[in-house]
Amino acid sequence: MPETDWPPHRRERRPWRQTVPKGPRADRDLREVEVSLPPMVAELDYPLERPLRLMMDNALNNLGRLDNSHGSRLGALDSLLLRTESVASSKIENIESSLSDYARALFGVRANASARSMVSATEALVGIIEDAESTGRIRVDALLQAHRSLFSRSAEDAPKGGQLRRRQSWIGGSDYSPRGALFVPPPPETVDDYLADLVAYANRDDVPVLVQAAVVHAQFESIHPFHDGNGRVGRTLVHAVLRRRKATQHLTVPIASGLVANRQRYFDALGDYRDGRAYTLIGLLTSSTLVASHESRRTATNLHEIRQGWASVVGPVRGGTALARLLELLPREPIVTAAVVAERLDVTLATAQQALRRLHEVGVVAPTSRRPRDQVWAATDVLDELSDLNLRIESVSRSKDAPAP
To answer: Where are the domains of the chain?
Structure first.
């Protein structure tokens, strides 16, 4: 790997003074800070060498085969993968919750803050992918909307959703000043110009797709345009780029699961990008894409077998009945309420409840809480497969070393 393969960030000292004096004296006395200024990337090209190009071709071919073979045939797969990706992306930020809590949070039923945050992360991911697909562009407005979605379930943070930072922020170090910070992003007055440059690069069609996805993500994290939520919004950009460039048309593979497995290596790769070594992150993203595509193909097969297993435990079911249609719905929507089933199947609430009770009796669905009213039901085999997919990707990713140049 070359010493540098990308313009490194410039470091520049800027005046600093606390607006409200807090913390120890060293924080109150701080008068300047060294900020990190990323390069403008809109017109940059990455010097892609043959070994990495071959690896990227392999990853995109696997992704395309999965998308073509299962994306159109198994509509169920994308909703599962979207949830898996959002959960994995949240875990990178140390936000974790059980699937039962996640299931309840989907319907606004009593659930912890982490579960609500994961549901919001799913909405942010869906929104930015759909915007890229419908407009053919990566747009700053879509980033702001994704950020609003991310904090929509937090009464405390919702007012800050979709707001670009207007103060200097920093990562690590003191709580009261950038003293000893691990990274200090560019000053707030530069954020608008940096984002305009970022989307100009993101909307190019003449750069390799995975290079573009990695650079867009790393550049976004370096700009750090929001006070919070930058990591989760930034990782949605990977999928927005893939969808805009039509590397995927149906599916969202859980690439973040591979990054969770190598959390420190992922953070180190972002550091390498700032030091002028983009290769590390491009290689890591490529490897994660390859692993996620392979394991998602296994999940597609497993879902088919799960559906066949349900047929054997439920027994003969007349086609077109509510029970038959519910069995078709659950792989697509493995977390439901009786009201949702009634709406989706266009049946009465009583009919929906009867079908759910029947599937509960044979172990296809299970309640997520002890409360009898407004119960949230989960197709446990499908959710177990979702969890297993995450674990498989993490396990395989841990066993792989970073790709050699």
So the answer is: 10-41+48-298, 313-388
**Parallel, antiparallel or unpaired: strands 376-379 and 335-337:** antiparallel
- Decide: helix, strand or coil at residue 12: strand
What are the per-10-residue average pLDDT scores of the chain (405 residues)? 86 91 92 96 96 95 87 64 73 65 67 72 87 96 92 80 93 91 95 98 97 97 94 91 93 83 88 96 95 90 91 92 94 89 96 96 90 83 88 84 42
Nearby residues of 287 by Cβ (< 8 Å), 6 or more positions away: 55, 59, 258, 397, 400, 402, 403
The third-level CATH classification (topology) of the domain covering 10-41+48-298 is Fic-like fold (1.10.3290)
Pick from 173, 211, 213: which is nearest to 33 by CA?
A: 173
Is 0.85 topped by the overall pTM? yes
Cα distance between residue 281 and residue 295, in whole Å:
21
Distances (CA, A) of 188 to 145, 164, 198, 237: 19, 8, 15, 21
Fold classification of 313-388 is Arc Repressor Mutant, subunit A (1.10.10)
Question: Same CATH topology for 10-41+48-298 and 313-388?
Answer: no
